[in-house]
Task: structure prediction
Amino acid sequence: MIQRLMEKLIDGEWVGPATAIGNDYKVLELRGVIQVKVSLKDSNMYNMKLLKKDVGELALKVINDGDISTEALISIPSASITNYIAPEQNRTYERKSQNSQTGKNIAELLDVLRSGK
Result:
């Protein structure tokens, strides 16, 4: 399932809708790696599209192989891509380490980016 999802993203297709897309990928959205938009079917769900194909290809390699070669890391300075953590686990960690004001600021910024207002 994850293989097909990543292939769709790498091919430039939109994936979703899912509620988690609006919560799990905020950093990637802020850094311009993905684009997120509210689903037309349900305003509590989101769709996403990968904007940086090379990032998706590296992520798929990590998921499939558990690691990527040092040659691939040369093209991403200071990256440490050596394992995969499921979004559910990562979300729990991020919520524990995030103060309420930071969370509010990020949510407001993403609302503006997603709505264009």
In short: The longest helix spans residues 100-115. The chain has one domain: 2-115. Residues 28 and 34 are 6 Å apart (CA to CA). The radius of gyration is 15 Å.
